Amino acid sequence: MTELYATAIFLLVLFALLGGSVWIGLALMGVAWVGMELFTSRPAGDAMITTIWTGASSWTLTALPLFIWMGEILYRTRLSQDMFRGLAPWMRFLPGGLLHTNIAGCTIFAAVSGSSAATLNMVGKMSIPELRKRGYPEYMIIGTLAGAATLGLMIPPSLTLIVYGVTINESITKLFMAGVFPGLVLAGLFMLYIAAWHFVRKDQRPEPEPAMPLGKRLAESRFLLPLFGLVFVVIGSMYLGYATATEAAAVGVVGALALSAMQGSLDWATFKDSLMGATKTSAMIAFILMGAAFLSLSMGFTGLPRALAELIESYQLSPVALIAVLTVFYLILGMFMDGLSSVVLTMAIVEPMIRAAGIDVIWFGIFLVVVIETAQVTPPIGFNLFVLQGMTRHEIGYIAKTAIPMVGLMLLMVVILVIWPELATWLPDNIRQGPGG
Amino acid sequence: MRDWQPFLWLPLWVWLFVFPTLLALFCFWQGPKAAVILSPVWRVLDRVYKVAGALAAGFMVLILMLIIGQMIARWSSLTFPGSTEYAGYAMAATSFFALAYTLTQGGHIRVSVLLNLNEHTKFWLDAAAMFVAAVTATYFARYAIKTNIVSEMLNDRTQGQDFVPEWLLTFFAMFANAPSKWAEMWAQTGSEWVYTPVWLPQLPMSIGTVLLAIAIWDYLTRLLALRESQIHGDVLE
Lengths: 437, 237
Description:
The complex is a heterodimer. By secondary structure, chain A is mainly alpha-helical. Chain A has helices at residues 2-19, 24-39, 44-56, 63-75, 79-91, 99-110, 116-133, 138-149, 151-154, 159-168, 172-200, 214-220, 224-239, 245-263, 268-302, 304-315, 319-333, 339-356, 361-376, 383-392, 396-402, 404-419, 422-429. Chain A is built from 23 helices and no strands. Chain B has a two-stranded antiparallel sheet.
């Protein structure tokens, strides 16, 4: 009975601190401290620092700041303009026309950036005004952008996957590889949706783009080629086993600096801004991870994860049913929290559950990203909605409404992942083992 | 409250928790007057956070250098012993040094559903949240320092293959000793490289967490004195 009381107090403190707008990292530490005091006689403070120090000084984590930095450098280049100009002439033949630049742009930028907010900003900055000028309907422009930007979290590099991998101690390279095909399939679904709109709402089609000779098209996309090169080097070196995730990130940073210098947009101010921006974002995530490391230690003492895993087992819940339950759970959680926090907060409890149910943890990472992405475009807390609000000055409600079809497509993606798990697991199973290991 | 030995005749927790709370209450009571008194302190502290942020950025560049160095070493079939440990230390340093800077720039995230309800409750909730955060951060810093000192006392060494020169150790150890001992310390310092003692890479943890705790108390006093949150961040970047 006292056990039950203690658990109730523990959960109450958890909700009070998080809901009471204490910074996530410190809120997690506070809750973890309460858990330690309630459930064990171990000295909480010393255990806390030992855990946090081990986590914070780990080599695996170094991929995080470098990938963030790479994205920050590219974010400050003129890539946005070049991307639209380079992509537009190739997209004009597709049914749905230049709306596809939203999807293609997000897919490409997702391959060099780990966050969806950065992807959204980068692509939207140019494509929103350009598409408006050409008379595409507003709801299609904004809706497709809100949806496609979430690819930033799925296609490697992905900050969410790094955090997930560090939290459950799985190979980040494998997780990155697992995200490639599901990311492309999701992009494909978005493009199909645009094509469907093209055929169903004929009245809303804008004037087709004027034709452009092949030579000019190539000239316009000359800036895209180095970017493609960078993507292939970063992802390819991981796949072929030449580099670990961290090394690929270092190559990415150097490549991004070179690209930016080539474009003439690299000066001391942009270098400094990118570095300081990356330092901040990296510290923000590292801080959450510190809190999470202590919380998962404390959570182990509460017995909550084991009890829940046993509960799942006693219900004989099938993996599919468990996934369905977790989907709903994460969607609700995503209404109040950002994606990273919901991953670190829940993994201590969810990990034993999924391992007990025999679900592949690499696959689960991808599933988690899709669900979290979906939460990014549903109100009341959806980071992508906030960014789009800042960019377009529309009401949150309106933006959320335009994104509803995308939410449907992402949930469809969850179903696809459940039916064909190989989509996520095939590539990581076939990575070549290189010297980096 | 075991484990909180007295310091200058008062238990340590009085120094760490009670005095800052009294200062915060003073700021709330005096309002703008307290702001006048404290604003020179605020200016200095803001500079300190910036310097720590720059230091953190420096360590981020160091991570990049270390990893590139490791790759070059591998390609040219040389060995770079301990490179992963060094990169890990640099990772810890960049995270810890940047904590306070990130806080003051509005970079840390929080669940703001209740915070954005209305202007009146916002002030009180923000103050309460910052108080809880300040206490937690102070606790964090206190144990970070304790762990750091214990590592030094036990002469805890790295598990990896990383070495540091002895003079570097003496340089940092100087600050923990009286100047009268410095000459003797340097006289004993050899030119060898030794296995990294854990206390050295843990120094940024102690410094960074102390700065974070100071920053939160600092911004709590600013909030209470000026009746308005002084953390203005670009919410998303």
